[in-house]
Amino acid sequence: MSKLTDVPKRILIGRALRSDRLGETLLPKRIALPVFASDPLSSVAYAPGEVLLVLSIAGVSAYHFSPWIALAVVVLMFTVVASYRQNVHAYPSGGGDYEVATTNLGAKAGLTVASALLVDYVMTVAVSISSGIENLGSAIPFVVEHKVLCAVVVIVLLTVMNLRGVRESGTLFAIPTYVFVAGVFIMIIWGAFRGLALGDTMRAPTADYHIKAEHQGLAGFALVFLLLRAFSSGCAALTGVEAISNGVPAFRKPKSKNAATTLAMMGLLAVTMFCGIIVLAMTTKVHMAENPAADLLHNGNPLGSGYVQNPVISQVAEAVFGKGSFLFVVLAAATALVLFLAANTAYNGFPLLGSILAQDRYLPRQLHTRGDRLAFSNGIVLLAGAATLLVVVYGADSTRLIQLYIVGVFVSFTLSQIGMVRHWNRHLAAERDQAKRRHMIRSRAINAFGAFLTGLVLVVVLLTKFTHGAWVALLGMCIFFATMTAIRKHYDRVSEEIAAPEGPSDDLVRPSRIHSVVLISKIHRPTLRALAYAKLMRSDTLEALTVNVDPAETKALRAEWERRGIDVPLKVLDSPYREVTRPVIEYVKNLRKESPRDAVSVIIPEYVVGHWYEHLLHNQSALRLKGRLLFTPGVMVTSVPYQLASSEAAKVRARRRQDWSAPGAVRRGPAQVRKESSKEPKEPKESPASKG
Amino acid sequence: MSKLTDVPKRILIGRALRSDRLGETLLPKRIALPVFASDPLSSVAYAPGEVLLVLSIAGVSAYHFSPWIALAVVVLMFTVVASYRQNVHAYPSGGGDYEVATTNLGAKAGLTVASALLVDYVMTVAVSISSGIENLGSAIPFVVEHKVLCAVVVIVLLTVMNLRGVRESGTLFAIPTYVFVAGVFIMIIWGAFRGLALGDTMRAPTADYHIKAEHQGLAGFALVFLLLRAFSSGCAALTGVEAISNGVPAFRKPKSKNAATTLAMMGLLAVTMFCGIIVLAMTTKVHMAENPAADLLHNGNPLGSGYVQNPVISQVAEAVFGKGSFLFVVLAAATALVLFLAANTAYNGFPLLGSILAQDRYLPRQLHTRGDRLAFSNGIVLLAGAATLLVVVYGADSTRLIQLYIVGVFVSFTLSQIGMVRHWNRHLAAERDQAKRRHMIRSRAINAFGAFLTGLVLVVVLLTKFTHGAWVALLGMCIFFATMTAIRKHYDRVSEEIAAPEGPSDDLVRPSRIHSVVLISKIHRPTLRALAYAKLMRSDTLEALTVNVDPAETKALRAEWERRGIDVPLKVLDSPYREVTRPVIEYVKNLRKESPRDAVSVIIPEYVVGHWYEHLLHNQSALRLKGRLLFTPGVMVTSVPYQLASSEAAKVRARRRQDWSAPGAVRRGPAQVRKESSKEPKEPKESPASKG
């Protein structure tokens, strides 16, 4: 099946996969954690730094607020995790926030959540890759010197990888994620040991710098506002928490319980890492500024535009492990890798959400098909394009991109939690069992608090970040919302237009007779086959039709027709301008005019070829004619294909394309409960045919 | 028919034209001359200057060779005109050089000529527009300061105009061409009068400059080579002479005689203008250099890169009429306009030649259709793209572009004339009438001399211009040649593959039965219509097929099926991955496997929509399925269209597209001798059906 000539294609499009391609194994918790949590865990690589950056506006003295902000983030994280543990139990289907909002708050809320999530996926790619590049850059200077270029290259690589339909394995996610988590924990423990037991003074590379406060001695409302802004930035640590609630079907049984446990583990890990890094940053005196070129001073002089501010995690690692040490490099690499994996989760999530939205007819219906290559490709290219745009516009600067990030996350958090409150209210109204009721009331309380807190954060984020870029994210959400609403409206309108009436209607009067016309250009195998099939169809009348484009050819055709004794009458249409389409259309229209109750069946012999350039050389007239005929009422158009030898190539290609494995398969879990249906398609299962 | 919303489209694509759209009037000589001769006549705007430019390499003293070079060009012009007068009489069909070469020298020679002509059309656009911009620039400084931009803008304008299918009128060509010719003649006569009768000393703006010879005191072989190079450049005056031989069918009767007369008039005009301009340039002491910034000296100093060297025709006009005078501006404008018209002729010729080549299967067959919009559009866009590339690469510098120009022209001249000699030889062998024989022998002598001289010039051009850019033109010719050969090979291979065998063969065994399958997604008007049509077809078995993508929907479908009492069995295919294509393909393959002698007819209800974005929302699954089914042997695919209300828009659009008038109609003459067939298509003429 795979010839030598296929090699270049195979390199580009990926190897033909076997039919049992999803390889659906359910995930144990130890694998599910890295698969779903690479996004939230990786965000500790940039979130602590963002807090310090904002605080630096009020000068280094404001840094002492950072533990309090970390505490607020921890409280929020626990609240969100606790809330989503309720979601996971109540909605084990994996529909996630979109399902919760739609079910409980209605279609518009659901669509808002969906728009927010779509924007969020774009931001995940842009922020994670930019941050990954910055972390990689702390070990490899070249990368940070060509930030935008490197970020775009990584986006392109991820895109190609996902378009190829790379087969995910849990291990792929597990190793870098666990290396990253382990690295951060070793750093925290070793840092604590050095500081407390050995009494070492660990100093970050920026410890000697001074921060020129943009607003010295900030107090009162302004200070509160600044602290809220710092908190908003710290909330970046929460992005991706909802991922597990979308992935419940992929868990081993008991699915919901395992998912809830994984969620808790994830929350605990994230919080510990976040706080550990903040504390180490304070201890090692990391100094960061929003605008380091001007606001960071060394011996009283600004550092200038040549200075590259490394991420807080890398500065801390340098202080704890030593610059260029083995552990420092490993941690930098693992951080970058886990951030790229986080970006990759968006590549899975975006088309997956698209397919759910398509099911509800907010997006083109073909996206509905699970693992449809074309649909996934479109989604992936759209995602990659939007992310690239953002990366280029914002210069791959994670700090500036984060301003756009958190809005979408908290829109969906808040609406989802409000939805959950409604969910419990509804269930409480029906439930009589007191134990269950108590449980529900407890869940409702958790979700209500979650809704309150995330809603509050949303307001804070909007207030503090709107002018810093959050408006861009809101605009993106509006565009998604409007587009999806328009698509849904279109589908609804069409569905109304084509609704079958009860009883017979004018439109559906069954035509009384059928008049078949076979289009003939020359006598060759394709036309002979078309004639044979047409005869077999036993329509009421049958004729062959040719257009006289070249009188000599037409004469030859007619002679051969008679010589071969073909028992179908041949009609010749004149065409002074050597056109094909117009005379045929006019003729068919005329047939319809003469006997309006007859339907006309136009049978077109077609070549099936294997390469795109061969398409340019064949069937163009047939295609155009078909296109025009479809607009003519009362006409049906039949293609009788003739497979040329070269069509084999396309067949192999098509088969391979169909055996393609959609990215994100691991996260999605098996297609249906009936396991046997995921095996190699054999005899299709047939339902008993119903008789009318 | 034309609604208000159509206005923007109408502006862009052009107004819907009536069906008798070619407006075929035969051309009288006075109109035919400007229509066909704008290209050769306009070349006198740049050819004399090119001669001076090359001579200037040997210093101003070499200028005294220019009358001799002009004389050589005149001799060549008369030879070529005399030769083509023979072509016109011998081949009145308008096939031009391609036909002459193919008929007499074989397919490869014909294809070489065709490749040369295609390259030539590209060069005509590039050179004429660049030169037009330079002439316009002599009156409007802005234009010459933004040469490349202006040239590209003109190309874009011409392209849009031709894509719109502008209706040509002879007048459009006649006015500027006659104004240009009249202007040049007035200039020559007025110049002669001022110089000879009034004794005025007319001085060109560059009369006071000195030329720094790159090679002072050139002699012997080097001088001869330089003179030959100058002559080659002067040969640019001959480009476009063959146009009339392509246009014989457009002439009034007696076609050949009128065409021959027009050819002679054109030659006479061109030669007089060419010589007049050379003489005036010598009289007014025009000084030009290939590299004016360095080699033109004013008071001993180079003029520097800011200096813009105006074309010789504009310098002479300035000397004769005075800078900024009315006649000077009119002549500059008319020169630019006639050059743009010359470029426009390539826009007509390129797709026209394409259609002839398509007839011989060297190009995709659909180009064969006369005035097929799509085919013309592709040709026009290809031409414009190539010309734009050349203009940008060569900085819209007509002098540099001309180096590429003349190769193609002389390749086709030479091959055509050799072909004509063969033509006469063949006819002489058969002809017995002595008077006719004498005539033929005379014609053969003319063509033989033409072949000799143009062949000599071709060698000279190749020798003197190869490194200056002629290799680019040759490369272009090779690319066209190779592509067309490959296309022809492909068509030949396919035609062999599909040739109908005499007598029955395995391949054509008529299938014994037909099994029809109607694809159903839901019950609505389109599916009900498809079912009704399918029943009417009376195939041997008929069933409805649905894919169980969503169990709830499938259940509802089955219930409604029974409720409505549809008397066709409904089969349900399972699809665990919500795929549509694969289960259907597998099912059809299985049907074929079970009874290999049966054919399967798959009937697909299809929506017909009006806008491209609606296509994205509908039929995608159907389209993909159709694409795959065509690769399955023994299957025929029938579309039963259902026209949605929005399809009206597309219908109107399609009709308008068909009523489009192809550019170049005037030059091409009527389609067929039978005049009545060009009228509004009424009842199509039917030939008596032949019975086998």
Automatic annotation (TrEMBL), chains A, B:
Membrane protein topology class: Multi-pass membrane protein
Biased amino acid composition, Basic and acidic residues: 673-692
Residue ranges of the region described as Disordered: 655-692
Lyase as UniProt keyword: no
Primary location recorded for the protein, binned into one broad class: membrane
Keyword check for Transmembrane: yes
Subcellular locations according to the entry: Membrane
Keyword tags: Membrane, Transmembrane, Transmembrane helix
Transmembrane intervals: 65-84, 105-127, 139-160, 172-193, 218-241, 262-282, 326-353, 374-396, 402-424, 445-463, 469-487
Ranges in coiled-coil conformation: none
InterPro entries the record matches: AA/rel_permease1 (IPR002293), APC_K+_Transporter (IPR053153)
Pfam families documented for this protein: AA_permease_2 (PF13520)
PANTHER family the UniProt entry points to: POTASSIUM TRANSPORTER KIMA
The protein's name in its UniProt record: APC family permease
